[in-house]
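Reader question, answered in our methods column.
A reader sent in the components of a multi-part assembly and asked whether the whole thing could be modeled at once rather than chain by chain. We filled in our standard form and ran it. Here is what they sent:
COMPLEX SIZE: two components
ENTRIES:
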Amino acid sequence: MIRFILGRLIKAVFILLAILVFNFLLIHAAPGDPAAVMAGEAGAADEKFLADLRANFGLDQPLYVQLWLYIKGAVQLDLGYSFRQQMPVAEMIGDRLPATLLLTGVAFVLSLVLGVAAGVAASARQGRWGDTIISTFALLFYATPLFWVALMATLVFSVWLEWLPGFGYSTIGAGYTGLAHVLDVAKHLVLPASTLGLFFTAIYMRMTRASMLEVSRLDFVKTARAKGLSRGVIQRRHILRNALLPVITLAGLQAGQIFGGAILTETVFAWPGIGRLMFEAINQRDYNVILGVFYISAAMVLLFNLITDVIYVIVDPRIRLTT
Amino acid sequence: MTLLSIRDLSIALPLGADRLYAAKNINFDLASGEILCIVGESGSGKSMSANAVMGLLPQGVEPDSGSITFDGQSILDLSENELLKLRGSRISMIFQEPLSALNPLMRVGAQISEVFEAHGALTGAERRARALKLLDEVGIPDPEAAIRAYPFQLSGGQRQRVMIAMALALEPDILIADEPTTALDVTTQAQILALIEDLRKKRGMAVIFITHDFGVVADIADRVIVMKKGEIVEAGRAPDVLLNPQHPYTRALIDAIPRLTKTEPVEEVERAPLLKVEGLQKTFSTGSGTLFGKRRVVKAVQDVSFDLYAGETIGIVGESGSGKSTVGRCLVRLLHPDGGRVLMDGVDIAHMSGAELHAQRRKLQMIFQDPFSSLNPRARVSRILTEGMIAYGMPDKEAKAKARELLELVGLDETAMKRFPHEFSGGQRQRIGIARALALEPAIIIADEAVSALDVSIQAQVLDLLAELKERLHLSMLFITHDLRVAARICDRIIVMQKGQIVEAGPVNKVLHDPDTAYTSSLLEAIPGQDYERSLAAANKG
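And here is the structure of the entire assembly that came back:
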């Protein structure tokens, strides 16, 4: 097991390096550079000023030198400097990470728990009205675009009903502390987290339902019935455990995205997370920030893939580890 | 003492099924300590009748009239909760496929303890102790290890023993065994049958044994019920039904049993071998050989050599795990042999690859065991049959015409072209599998347990078809099977394999009637129904 994890981690380092190089080249293949954008905004765009800016940022160096410097930094977790914000990128990401983790983490747990529960409930009522209602809602959430759900949720719960705040991370200027602050943030969290979670809830529900029904037709379920076990025990111990295997794969995929933030949701709800950081950085051609976010998300995807595999082995004894 | 009595039971099938009743007007009694065999082909309603006793009918299938009385209670009138109390404690059940019948994610011990838990018997530590004792009783070699094992870590026979241990946990009055030995090889089958017989004697337990094999019936049954299309066509004491069958259907089933009869010896002629296998080797290794578990190396095939002549059928027999299937798979190059040569027309195909191999491949075609999973369920028969020919460059139209001829050849009509595999019965599917193998006009057919999944009567038909085709198309055949009776019926020469090696090889009459090795003798002794065969033969003479 330890050897497997080590082997995978070594592989991951190389994959990560390849991603780093690829992203770097991709970004630099795009026309325009940060110096041009900054000069444009400043209004004074003579050649001398541009050249000075480029020299300051190291943008006049040959590409391979820039790449080498970047990789050297990235290995030491120095993700470079944002020329726009005049801040180290690592620090910027660090500032935004808690908000993003809170949002995506809550959405992840919420969608997993709700999705699996709804899937189990629907499969237990297969073909009856309970199943139809759950499945219809799932289809609805699955098919509706995220931004539309977000806008409608704001309109209904924030503008009309005035139950929940429509944007932001906490009430600005309220100066809440302690429990009051926690409650304030939680209130702000409700709309973005449910918006973000709905889509995955729908997917988990559909997958759990289909998987439960498939497993419930297998022979060992009949064996369990022949033992005289009650319906609840059979559902829980025999069907659900086996049915969860494909759900784990999917959850691993979603978990990998937790650190990447959610650009759409964060933008609509003005949530100060990585997603919005990314959005702003793209608009401003803030190379180092974009690369930094890419780098962190790629690392997280790799990490969560590994964690998923390990969980798989723990849950399903038939799977052997091979690097 | 009558334990169970079924009167005028009819079980309705949902609308749209191929008939109205799964079982109709079923009447029988079961006394304690008695073994009752229910015999019939797939779809005869034999499993349904047994499931009804457990209250375990599939959704949509309902008892329609009649009664089932067990120990004074009317089972059909019991509530679900009352049924739960009976299942597993008073009446229990074992199934055909012991791997799929066990939960793959639960340890064996936990699955046995569950029975006690379901019925509130014993406490934690006692349950474990009892599970150990049960595993020991059903003949699992190392119960301490088995209790911690997952089902996939046990062999087929051991899994079935675990199932039996589970079924016996609360000492039921009735054990329902639904084809419990069909998926096992002969020696394991003989052991499991002996185990059931033994338990019946020790505990006075009644057994309902469902099977399609009259050999098995002859070995264990006290009484026999023969079912056809949902109805009982014959019932009686075992010796009466077996030696003096009244109904033509019973006689047909008995005639269909493959027998170890001697065949006409073939004339030996000087000829060159078509296929020459020299020193074939194949090794599998599992586990990483590191911190996590030991490296296990299985020498699946060791130094196997034989010649196959034109027009000849060689049977490769052995228990599961003997490496017989691996040999077949190495020859058609579904597996890559680790060593040795496979000479076909003087060329070694064992280590070919790419275009060279592609050119040789069509000469060797394979027929698989499971006619359900070996045909693509999403492809129509026309695609299944023409795919190979088109891959070898035959124009579409020509391939279709050829496919129609092939269907006729295997006894299906051409309307089959447009249908999907699930629309056919098991025997018909196997015919499609045969047609597919013949499509590329191979010189050699490798049949891997090609009839093992079929009912005896269908088995006989498919074997006849294979023999006829072999004759007509001058094919050579490698027939891989665990059933020596089947091998006797179709093979010219027999190769007996054990643990990856050939232990004995020779003409069919010699190997099956006068074997040189103890291993072959033990395989022969395990064949069910041998006493019955002898008494049948005696009766025929007399």
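What stands out: The longest helix of chain A spans residues 178-216. The mean pLDDT of chain A is 82.
Send us your own complexes using the same form.
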